[in-house]
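User: Hello! My lab partner asked me to get a predicted holo structure for this protein. The small molecule is flavin-adenine dinucleotide, SMILES included with the sequence. Please write out the structure tokens.
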Amino acid sequence: MLSETALKKIKEFLPEEQIFPDCPLAERTTFRVGGSCSCLIEIDTEEQLCSLIRLLNLIGEPYFVLGNGSNTLVRDSGYSGTVIHIDKAMNEIKVDGCEIFAEAGAMLSKVARVAGEHGLTGLEFAAGIPGSVGGGVVMNAGAYDGEMKNVVTKVRVVNRDGEIMELSGSSMEFGYRTSVLKNRPFIVTGVSFRLQEGDRAAIRSKMEDFNARRREKQPLEYPSAGSTFKRPEGHFAGQMIMEAGLRGFQIGGARVSDKHCGFIINTGNASASDVLDVMGEVQERVYSCFGVKLEPEVVILGD
Ligand SMILES: Cc1cc2nc3c(=O)[nH]c(=O)nc-3n(C[C@H](O)[C@H](O)[C@H](O)COP(=O)(O)OP(=O)(O)OC[C@H]3O[C@@H](n4cnc5c(N)ncnc54)[C@H](O)[C@@H]3O)c2cc1C
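Assistant: Hello! Below are the structure tokens for the protein in complex with flavin-adenine dinucleotide.
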């Protein structure tokens, strides 16, 4: 927890309006559950981030970086550290020929749309992913025929010493819903994408088709974090959950979606422990039916 002295130091380089002590996190994640963090800090610029990281590391304050919160489940007990929020205030997108540079807080859907408007193909898969560029590159977000791995050429990060570094796409160790950044204390501030020239109408129609498929198959009308579990090799999590008889299985306000069993949804008044209990039951029943261990795709934050 930040001391008064640390807060005073932070206010020397960050306006007070960007600092939220004892901040509820439910409204900053798409699951809409969970407790508060000791302090949430919204970041506007790379310079602010560098200064903040240097200070937090100097005083040994734990921190977590939050993008759009669409893959994060916050425990009810909250997080007794600082949440660094990188979203809309850092969302510049620049197009240069077939290259796009997007700041980490830009929404993937917006970058995909801008690419399409410039007749650039390769990011259509991202049109319906409700995450930020930063979260997307950390998770190697992907859908249908694409993933970040195929289009990312450079990643700009701030390291533990508060220094800016540039990593090449090939050094990112992208894997299924993972990258080297999942285990390294680097904070993404921007990403460069390399795309191909394409036909604007075809790009738009592909994105519309992907989004229509999402609306048809996914329970987008409820808060969730998308697919709760990773796809186990050779299986589909949703199908195994359905075959284990768990369609509509509910504890408190958390429920296995009737529309897509791979999604656990918040029916309105779920707590994080309802969600975690449903996850636990799903893992147990799928293991006893199929001998397969489901691994969470959602990042769980909390004490
Ligand atoms: C309805 C729905 C549908 C979805 N569909 C898909 C899909 O088709 N494919 C898919 O891959 N995902 C999907 N997701 C999951 C989610 O949108 C993606 O994983 C997305 O990339 C997460 O981005 P975010 O900004 O919301 O990340 P967050 O949830 O904010 O964070 C996720 C992880 O990234 C880290 N992180 C975030 N920003 C940064 C940063 N700037 N620097 C360093 N670390 C950072 C966080 O610390 C955390 O570990 C879906 C989610 C929902 C709710």
